[in-house]
Structures are given as structure tokens and as C-alpha cells.
Amino acid sequence: MDFFLTALSFTILLPNNIPTSTAIRNAPSPSPADAPLTLHIVSHDNTNPAAPSADPNDDEDKKKPSKKGVLGTAINPALRDICEATKIPNKCMDYLAPIATRAGGTYQDPVSILNLEVELLYKKVEKATDDAKDMMAKKKDVVSTSPEVAKGLNACVGLYNKATDDLARALLECSENKNGATVEQMLSSALQSIRSCDAVFGGKSGEKDAPMAEVNEKMIDMAELGMEISGKWLTKGKAQTKIIS
């Protein structure tokens, strides 16, 4: 008896509401003193992203990933090389590989990979903002919001909003001007906002006392990762194809 195999195709999709270079093309050239940037969000070819996977469970992140990477033989070699040059190679792969290694992906150079990294961080900060608002409105059962926690969450919402403005500017500089110094500056500012949110809860942990601690930890990792990639592959307005020593 003949057997017929039906080929299944899987597509990892990109976000509907991540700001693209087209969406922010007409934004003013960024500077720390600029007023908050108003974004007109457009879809990424009417597709949705695959969410970055969870952090690896092991504590050996300083070890470089294997040449096959976390996705085996399907690994994107450009991404692998970039991640192996960072301080957190396994987390770098974990955050970016699900999208950057997709079939037909265009993420084959440092600039496009950095742009992807900042886009994913932008999306994560947006979700954190919505989650904090939901917690304040007591829409989530996982947190019994006390007045102190609600006050902290409200502060985090303002800090997250500032971070998204900075990340939008970072995207503009990365995709349009390839100005590494400004990309790092905007990522550093976003990083400070996220850390400030973390500090609101006094270094506490746990969903009840510090409901944003876990997501803040991941966003801090991603912001630092973006700064490292930018510093090694973008400098003085010129895109680099090799690591800058």
C-alpha cells in the first residue's frame, strides 16, 4: 500500500504592532533631550511573532553554545557567531534563535539581528506595561495587589513608557542611520528605566511582593545584550561586519 506524506510547513511570524523602520522613518533624529516619540504602529506584513522562549534552566550560560546551537543543524550561522561573542551566548540564542533561524529569514548580518533584538525587547516592554496595568486593576488572579504594590506598579508603567520611547529611537538609529553610539545611548536609557522599576520593589522577589521582578530580569538581559551587540558591530555611524576590538 502506498503511503502519502503530507508536508507540513511552519512559519514563525512577526509582530503586528512592533514599530518598524517604516513606521518611525519620519521621527526626528533622537537625542536624550527630545520629547517622547509618538509612534504610528504598523503591522509587519500582517504576521505575528513567535514569543522568545524561556531562559535556559542551567547555570552555565557563560559556556558558548555548540556549533549546532539550540536549534540543532537549523541554526543561523550569523546569529551563532554574534551570540558566541557576547557575555550571555546561551540566552542570546534563546531569545533570538526562534525567529532569526526561521526558513527564509533575512537576519544574516549584525545590523538586522540587532534590529530584531531591539524589536523583541520593545514588544516585551509593551507587554510588561499592559501586565502592570492589569495587576493594578486586579484583573489578574496571580497577584493580590496591596496599596504598596499598586503604587510600585504605577511607577513601573511610567518607567516602561519611557523605555519604549527610547527603544523606538534605538530602532530608528539602528535601521536608518546605523549610529552605534546613539543606539547604545538609547538602550542604556531604556535599561535604566527597567532597573528603576525593579528598584521600586526594594530588591524583593516573588509575584506578591515584586510582581515585575521576573520579567524585569529578562528585559535587563535583553537591553544589555543589545548594547553589547551594538558596541561590537556598530560604531561611528558605520555598520561593521566583524567584531570591533
Automatic annotation (TrEMBL):
Annotated region Disordered: the residues are 43-70
- Entry-linked SMART domains: PMEI
Signal sequence annotation: 1-23
Give the source's domain of life in one word: Eukaryota
Q: Where is the Pectinesterase inhibitor domain?
A: 74-229
Q: Which SUPFAM superfamilies match?
A: Plant invertase/pectin methylesterase inhibitor
**A Pfam family this chain is assigned to:** PMEI
The cross-references to InterPro entries, in alphabetical order and at most eight, read: Invertase/methylesterase_inhib (IPR035513), PCW_Enzyme_Inhibitor (IPR052421), Pectinesterase_inhib_dom (IPR006501)
Write down the Gene3D superfamilies for this protein, in alphabetical order. Invertase/pectin methylesterase inhibitor family protein
What family classification does the UniProt entry report for this protein? Belongs to the PMEI family.
Please state what the protein is called.
Answer: Pectinesterase inhibitor domain-containing protein
